[in-house]
Every structure is written in C-alpha cells, then in structure tokens.
Design goal:
alpha+beta; Rieske Iron-sulfur Protein; 8-stranded antiparallel sheet; 3-stranded antiparallel sheet; elongated
C-alpha cells in the first residue's frame, strides 16, 4: 500500500523475489544458448542469432505459463501466496523478455528490409488460407501487444484511473495473450518442420494450466456450496462454531444474496468484514491479522477490524457486518453496514449463551449487556 504513487514499490521481499527471478532467467538463457547448439550436428549449424531468439521466445512462453499457474496454485495451496503477492513484477519482466524476443527476430530476419522492420514483418507472409504456412507472426505480435499494454497499465495509478472493474477486465486479456502464444509457437513449429520437443512443451503447458484452473474452480465451487448450505435463522447466517476459529485468521462464508464475508478472530473478539478487497477483489479472509490490521494476501492492503477502513493516510474501505455468538455458534447478519460504520469487535463469551431459538431475535436491538454492539457512522 502507498498513499502516494511511486514508479515502483520496492521492499525487501520484492527485491529478493525480483533478484531470484532475474537470476533464474539469466541462467536459463545462458544454458539454452550454450547447450542447445551441442545437442546435434544439425543444431551446431544453426546461427547464434537464431538460438538467441529461440532462447528469449521459449523463456517468455515459460514465464507466461508460470504466471497463469500462480493464480490457481494460490487458491489450491496458501504456500503459493507469496509468489502471487509479487506477480505484478513477474508480468512486467515477462513483457520485457517478450520484447527482446521480438527484437531478436526483427534484427535477424528484417535487418536489410527496404521498409521498416515491423512493416516488413507484416507483409512478408500473407498465406492466410492455409494452416501450415499461416503467418504465425501475427499471433506473436498480438500476444506481445497485450503483454506490453498490461505492463504499462500495471501501476496502481491505472487501477484507480480505469476503475478496478475495467482494469481487471483489461488484464484478463492475459488469457487471450496465452492462447495467441500457443498458436504462434505451434504454427511456427509446424512451419519449421514440426519440432516434437516444442510441441510437447506447448501441450504440457496447456494441459497443466487447464488442470490447475479446473481444480481451483471446483474447489471454489465446493466452498460456495458449503456457504450456500450454511444454517440460516431469520436474517442471520451461521459461520461455524467458536472453537473452529484460529487466532488472527478468519472463517469465510456468504450471505443469503451471495455476498462473500470473512469473520476474523483477534484477541478473543470477532469482527465480520467483506471478503472482497477494495484493491483488486482479493480474498481478504485468506489473509491474517497483522499488528491489529486485516491484511489481504494478494497485495498487502490492510483494514481496521472495527470499521473496515485502511489506517490513515490510506483511504481504502470495505464493508462491515454485525456478528453474534449464540449457543457456541457464530452468526452474521449479511446486511452490509454503510462504509465507515464503526462496529466494535464482538467479545467471545467466556460461558455458553442461553439457548435462543431464533438469532434474529437477538439482533442489535436486543443484544445482551455483556456483548455490546456499538455501531456509529465514521471512517475517513
């Protein structure tokens, strides 16, 4: 988080992340360009600039595949969340590698063209009505254009300027870029003689990504079903037993209208907030309480437990909800409170509450004296 826009937000974690990424890319490029010509006598005859463009191209494809795998992996296993946290830098670096691949291609094949290299690329192959021989370069240029646009708009300024919905939709074009890369690589391999290794790598990448996304989607669907099947009493929805909560963590659920809610336990008290981060819609409930602030696992945006507001000078806000504990069960009123409403965290009773048939009766107006629910309009 930052209350003022900066070109790049650096911290120790991101510096280490970027360093490992750059070292890994450098090692891959060196190994590829050094060892690939040694694979066979025919490979040794291939000019060094061609190996260079292949190295950059294959590296960009692998990086893009990893980027698309990070999201579902983080949904499946929380240990991948640190990689997700720094994925923006990963994407910008991938765009840079793709640009180097395009430059290597233009410098080798179109260096002596009487027109601009880019114009020469577009008119060099016009076989649009055949599969083998189709101008696969167009798919590569489309992918490159999308990656560059995404890199240029990756800053939070553009997120705010375009609005999160538009920005997110723009960056979902990464799937179009990936599909275009698949066609670019596959058709290019067919034109070049159908390199089996290249085609196998492309197929493996596609199968792995489809599998990961399906598995993550099914996991989310199972969660949604559990939320939908949660007990409902009046207007209140059950979120589990008090003993199910872990200090500093949340249990997640949904309201009767499908709104996602997270209930956090911190210092013996419960707080219910929206499970949708105001930054990029991240799952706030999968984060934890850090220094008294709920911290989104995606990009570290933080919110106060009592009002859902970010601490000054930050101005992000998420909705708050009323929470109760009755008969050992945690209940949430799914009606969101106005942004900035202060609701003090609900103290977990030390002894079991009296049996109450309908939690709706024990709403804010009739809550017991030992469990106050002070709600005031505030925020910043």
């Amino acid at each position: 988080m930052s209350h003022a826009y900066k070109p790049v937000l650096w911290n120790r974690t991101k510096l280490i992340y970027d360093a490992f990424l750059l070292v890994g890319i450098g090692a891959y490029l060196w190994v590829f360009m050094t060892l690939a010509p040694m694979l066979s006598a025919a490979a040794a005859l291939v000019e060094a600039p061609i190996w260079k463009m292949r190295a950059f191209g294959s590296c960009a494809f692998i990086l893009l595949s990893i980027i698309l795998a990070i999201g579902p992996l983080a949904r499946i296993d929380a240990r991948f969340l640190p990689i997700l946290y720094n994925r923006r830098h990963f994407g910008v670096i991938t765009a840079g590698v793709a640009i180097l691949h395009a430059k290597a291609v233009l410098d080798w094949y179109f260096a002596f063209a009487p027109i601009s290299k880019v114009d020469a690329l577009f008119i060099s192959n016009t076989s649009f009505f055949q599969v083998i021989g189709f101008p696969f370069e167009l798919f590569g240029m489309l992918s490159l254009a999308i990656l560059v646009v995404m890199a240029l708009t990756s800053h939070d300024f553009w997120l705010s300027f375009l609005t999160p919905r538009v920005w997110k939709g723009l960056h979902m074009l990464v799937y179009v870029a990936y599909g275009s890369v698949i066609l670019h690589v596959a058709l290019g391999a067919l034109v070049g003689g159908g390199n089996p290794v290249t085609l196998m790598v492309v197929a493996a990448s596609l199968i792995i990504l489809i599998t990961l996304h399906l598995r993550a989607g099914l996991a989310e669907a199972r969660k949604d079903k559990v939320f939908a099947d949660a007990p409902v009493a009046g207007a209140w929805v059950a979120f589990g037993q008090v003993d199910d909560f872990i200090e500093g963590r949340a249990l997640m659920g949904s309201g009767t209208a499908g709104e996602r809610i997270a209930v956090f336990k911190f210092k013996g008290r419960l707080s219910a907030l929206s499970n949708v981060c105001s930054h990029q819609g991240g799952p706030v409930g999968e984060g934890k309480v850090v220094l008294g602030l709920v911290t989104c696992p995606w990009h570290g945006y933080q919110y106060r437990l009592e009002d859902g507001c970010s601490p000054p000078p930050f101005k992000e806000r998420i909705r708050k909800y009323r929470v109760r504990v009755m008969n050992g069960t945690v209940w949430v009123d799914p009606t969101p409170l106005p942004l900035g409403t202060v609701v003090e965290p609900y103290p977990i009773p030390k002894t079991a509450n009296p049996v109450i048939a309908n939690p709706e009766i024990s709403g804010p107006e009739t809550s017991s004296p030992d469990a106050p629910d002070t709600a005031t309009k505030g925020g910043h």
